[in-house]
Amino acid sequence: MDTLTERFEQERPRLRAVAYRMLGSAAEADDAVQEAWLRFHRTDAGEIGNLPAWLTTVVARLCLSLLRARRNHREEPLDGRPEPDDDRRDPGQEAELADTVGLALLVVLDALGPAERVAFVLHDMFAVPFDEIAPVIGKTPAATRQLASRARRRVKGGTAVDADLPRRRKVVEAFLAASRGGDFEALLALLDPDVVLHADRFAGPSPAPIVLRGVESVRRGAILASERARASELALVDGAPGLLMVREGRLAVVLAFQVEGDRITGIEVIADPERLDALELAVL
Fold it and tell me: What is the pLDDT of residues 176-188, one digit of tens each?
């Protein structure tokens, strides 16, 4: 038993990494790994030819079941989301995991179908061959390859190359840094004098949409939102650089930018759940 435990513990960090990227929840990842241990404990170890591959398959099947159940209940847990067993979670550990994976990636992965997510995570992140993934999701290796390819396009935003993307990305990155640091002068340099910010009715404290016009109004709004900016990450929003803001583990707000030259001329603040669902998000 000591030998079996030691062999499993050697695999635990990798299994937890696999489960976390599939589920986006440290608590659920721990549950999946613990269930894999129980199944390993009940199995004759002598019948297992390749222990790492066997354990990965077990964890992947458990995660696939959880993802399908989640979709049926229309739940969208990402790290930090309150859960029934919240008292057993380590917030610091979850924050470290989220930083390692990236909140933007978790948000994008959460938009994938269960089989797509499993195929993409196993193949693209952990180099598991398609012929080993196929039995997990109940597809042929060829169909599994297609699922992973489709997921890859969604995660990376397709293959189209926008020659202007690096410049606009640099502007949005500078806006994020200035907002986080409360840097008034940097924001003034980034905002066009006639910049306009539109925020839907879900984005602010008032029940009506908000419109801010002019550099001073938008700058003050950005400074006031500096706390939100600390929970934000850069991502592609409908093919252009934007920001994703996560609150309590859920995608809460998206900022879409209009950039002309090196100045921001418009900002769209989107918090309406239906509008968020309709956005095409990808990882830069």
Answer: 999 888 888 888 8
DSSP SS3 for 136: helix
Is residue 241 within 8 Å of residue 234, measured between CB atoms?
Answer: yes
Q: Does residue 109 have a pLDDT over 70?
A: yes
What's the N-to-C CA distance of the chain in angstroms? 46
Integer Cα distance of 111 and 123 in angstroms: 18
Tokens of 190: 């980034």
With a CB cutoff of 8 Å and minimum separation 6, the contacts of 119 are: 130, 133, 137, 144, 147, 148, 151
pLDDT at 223: 77
Q: Report the relative pairing of strands 263-270 and 191-199 from DSSP bridges.
A: parallel
DSSP 62-84: HHHHHHHHHHHTT----TT---T
Q: Which of 76-90, 173-187, 264-278 has the lowest mean pLDDT?
A: 76-90
β-pair type (191-199, 240-247) = unpaired
Evaluate whether 137 touches 144 at the Cβ level (below 8 Å): yes
For the chain, give the number of residues.
284
